[in-house]
Phasin domain-containing protein (Methyloceanibacter superfactus), 135 residues
Amino acid sequence: MTMPDSGPTGGAARARIANPLLDFATAAAEAQLKFWQAFHVEGSAFVAKRLRANLEFLRELGHCADPRAIGDCQWAWLGNLRKDYAEEWARLAGTTFALGVSEMSPMSGFYARAERKGSNGLAPGQRPARNSVSP
């Protein structure tokens, strides 16, 4: 989606106005889009896998003739359910870590604040340690 221009350009290139807040918001929106796309693909594949497993469970359940067979079928389904969810959580954690490292590290500069120190060597609002002696 392209955002409309805010004014006429007359064919000339417009100068970009520096705005740290806008830069941060733009970088955050780009990172969020990449996260959502990655999780959408992963989540859709997982839902499809579980729907197929549930369908197979229902088909198998239709062949069970006694309570013991029904119980065994349900235990097998539950075991596969736990295994699938554990694998999915591991994949989501891996995806989150990979995206977090690759996408969020460039944004760390937005979070860092330069601390100005006064003549006493302390940042504004910082108090000296209790055991320190003033020079």
Q: What stands out?
A: The radius of gyration is 28 Å.
